[in-house]
Every structure is written in C-alpha cells, then in structure tokens.
Amino acid sequence: MRKLMNAELMEHDIKLRQMGADVYVINSKMCFVVFLVGSTEIAYVYNVNKKGRYFLERIKPYPLALREFEREEDVIEIIEIDLEQFKNASNSHNIETFIEINQNFNLSLRKFEDLFLYFNVPKETAEAIKSKLGEIDQIIETAKTSSDRIYFKKNPDNL
Amino acid sequence: MQFHLILAIGVFFITYLLIMSEKLNRTAVAMVGAFLMVMLNIEGQERALHYIDFNTIGLLIGMMIIVNVMKKSGIFQYVAIKAAKIAKGDPWKIILYFCVITALASALLDNVTTVLLIVPVTLVITDTLELNPIPFLVPEILIANIGGTATLIGDPPNIMIGSATGLGFMDFLIALGPVVVIIFIVTMVIFKYGYRMHYVATDANKRKILKLDEKKAIKDPILMKKSILILLCTVLGFVLHQYLGYESATIALFFASILLLISKCDVEDIFIEIEWATIFFFISLFILVGALEEVGVMEYLASKLLEVTEGNMMFTMIVILWVSAIASSVLDNIPFVATMIPLIKNFGAMSGLDVTPLWWALALGACLGGNGTLVGASANVIVSGLIARHGQKLSFGYYLKIGFPLMLVSIVISTVYLVVFII
Fold this sequence. Notes:
The structure holds two protein chains of two kinds. By secondary structure, chain A is α+β, with helices and mostly antiparallel strands. Chain A has helices at 2-18, 72-90, 95-118, 123-146; strands at 28-37, 40-49, 54-60, 64-69. Chain A has one domain (2-146). Chain A has four helices and four strands, in the order H-E-E-E-E-H-H-H. Chain B starts with a helix and ends with a helix. Chain B is globular. By secondary structure, chain B is mainly α. The chains are: A alpha+beta, B mainly alpha.
C-alpha cells in the first residue's frame, strides 16, 4: 500500500511541477479524532511531522479553518477548549439551529466563491451581498451585548 | 529423525499453501513457519542463522537505499519526460522509449521499483495524450520482468541464485543478456503490430507533450549528480566484484552508505522506505528451506530428480526452465527459487555434473514466468493496483490474453537459446 501511495504521489508531483509548483513531501502522521457530544459528532484532523509543526482542522459538525501550531500541547489545548465549548453549547436549546446556521454559512461561502470565480458579477450585486453581510455582522454584535456570557476560560478569538 | 522429517515437511507445506492462498500476509506466514521450525527444534538457532543468505539481504537493502535516495532527485521523471519529447509525442515511439528505459532500469534495479518509477510518468503522459494507459502499462510490466532477467541484481531470483552459487554480475550479463535482448525485440515487435491501434494520438495532444518541461522534474540537481555518480560506481563495482573479491552485497552496501553520507537526505526517511516486509520474507524463507535441508528432504528430492532425468543435462535443463516458468506464472517465484536452489545444488553434488546451465534455466524460467498472469510477479500486481487507483481496471483475463502467450514465446526463445548456446 505504501508503494502505491508513493507512486500516486509521484504522479501528482510531476503534474504539479509542470504547473510551476515547488512540491515538498514531508513524512508525517495524520490523526483523525472523533468525540460524541450527545448526538453530535465532533471531529478533528491534525497532522504531526518531524519538524514539530502541527496542522489542525475541525471537520465536523462544521469545518473550522486550518491552523498551524508550534507545539503538540497547543493542539490538545485547542481541541480541549473547542470540545468544552461544544459540550456547553449542546445544553442550549439553540444547538441544532446554531449548527445549521454554521453549515449554511459555509455553504454560502462556497457558493459565493463559485459566483466570484465562474461569473462576471455586476458591482451592484457585490455591494448588495456586502451590505447583507454587514447586517448579519451587526446582528451578531448586538446579540453579543444583549446575551449572557457562558464561557470564561478563554476570550473569543474573533468577537 | 523420522518425526522431525514429517514435522518439517508439514510446517513447510502448510506455510507454502498459506503463502500461495494470499489470504494472509505472506511475510507474517513465512515468519511463523520459519520460527516454528526453530521452536520445534527441527533447526537449531545457530543453524537457522547459518541458512540466512546475508549476501542476498545486503544486496536488496543496499539497492533499496540507493534507489530511495536517487528518486528524491527527480532523475527518473526527467529522463522519461525527455524521452517523450524526443518521441515528439508519438505514442508508439513513447512506449518504445519507455520500454527501453524500463528494461535498462529493471536490469539495475528490482522490477517493482522500476515500475513504481516509470508508471507515474506514463500515467501523466497518457493523460496528456488522452489515451487509455493500459496498452502502455502492460508492455512496461512485461519488459520490467524481461529486463530484470538479464543481470544479477535485476530480479530477486537472480540475486538468490548468484549468492548461492558465486555466479557474478558479468556471468549473468554474458549468459542471459543476449537472450533478454532477443526477447525484448520480439516482444516489442509483437506490440508494434498487434496493438498499434492503441497508439494513436491527435496532433493537438502531441503538441502538449512538447510543451512539458523536463527541467521542472528535477527536484535537486546536486543530488541528481551525486546519485548518478554513485549508481555508476555501483554498477562498475558489480562488474568488477568477482575480480576484486567482494560480494555483490558489499558493493551495494558500501556505495549506499556513501550516498547516504553525501546526499544530506534524512537517513531515517530513507530507511522508512526500505521494504522491510520483503526483507523479512526472504529471511524467513531461507530459514524454512534450511530446515528442509537439515532433515535431508532436499537430498532426497535431488536423488529423485537424478533418477527421473538419468543425469541428462539437456532434459533436466528444459524441465527446470518450463516447470519454473509455469510455476512462476501463478506462484510467487521467490519461495519457488529458494526451494529449487538447494535442490539443484544437491543434484550437482550427487551427479558430479556442472550444473551452471541449470542455474540459467532456473533464472530464465522464474523471472520470465512471472509475465504469464497478473499475479505472476509483484510488478504485475503493483501496476494493476496503480491502474485501479487511477480509476481504471486491468482485469486478470485481459492481462492473461496478452501476458501468457508472450510468456510462452519468451520461454520458447529461451529453450532454443539454452539448447543452442549454453549446453
């Protein structure tokens, strides 16, 4: 199996180099981590390599962008906090709606990317989307001030 | 003694059957069989060690190290893309050039490594030409097995034969090189006229091949130069090893260690890529067959062979060639050759005849026989796996229709060659 993997990798390498890329192949281990919180599956994938770089990504229940970490403890800490927050959130009666909204955000983001890459979108439409996003952002900011904070171990990264 | 004899034969056959069934991992089965022989005191621990052919093991490891370092430079991709461009994108010329590269590479590296290097480039080329890759990959499988037959280091059976008999690199090249060249030419002619309808591409796609840049395939130019230098030194070492009084394994391991030192590659990464499962499979087989020798089975079988053939060298040679070819087309040729080696040695000792022609017959039969079916050789299985990962299927029946007749052609040519030139 390793032989087949290496050969397939070589094929990708040739194609990518012909496209002008520099390709670096690093021996590493990929870890797939799954927790079950209530009926919700929370899954992460992270990659450990010899150079001490860790690449972590949440893939379920909705994807969280890839981040790079210097130390193994950072990865475990991020997962620990993330899991704790999900456990907290799972007690909320809004959890299903919360996950659904996040999944819809991700889908909208992918659709927007397609729109941008495949179509020549008029400026007015782009402005309309921007304005709608601003409205959503405003709702989130308002909700932050009017809602009780429930998690204190760490401050929010983006809010 | 009688009890140990029955036990040894029992353990050996059960192990063989399990290996052939391919239901369990062959290395795990062979290891259990080998160490069962030791645990049951059929073969003492010291004697078991004595039967392990460390020359074969060393040669395999040495060449694996050299290849694993070399492939990091991108040299194989460079050569293949350059060849495709020299062919100006013409599919027939591409497959011809790729088969020449495959034959040469296979003569210096083992067949599995060769196909693992040539197949990815072939897939890129056939994707670019928008052609079905299977008519390109089947000749490459056949030629990898054919090319590997020519030298001491080209195929594991030859490594084992060379190590057991003292026949050197030049002995193999002189005895088997000519017939391999003939078989190569005949095979390519058959593909040229039998499968030419598959080797047609549009001019637009041919132009895409010309746009490929072989220089982009070079990952590390300095490593490439170092690797080429070391490979040339290794080949020179193989050519001279008999005259210098070194074992082929010593040559391979010496230059492998030099390359490890000067390449600045991560040694741990290179060692991860060594096929340890194959190495342990060999070690276990040596112990297993050694146990049969210990209890006298090989001596008995050799006496029976002598009785049947009445010491007629030509008849014995033809029998060994054809039996090896047919057996290797459906079975793993490594355990087969591991068993045949002590058998032929005992035959030689009993008959007092020079058994060198029998070694050539065994090498030709075991190496070329692998072309007969899709499971006949590891290279065939690997390419079929690569094709499956590429979203296509090389079926057993499709391969059989091409591979088996071509294998028979190669064995007929070998028979004539052995009878006319070797005896």
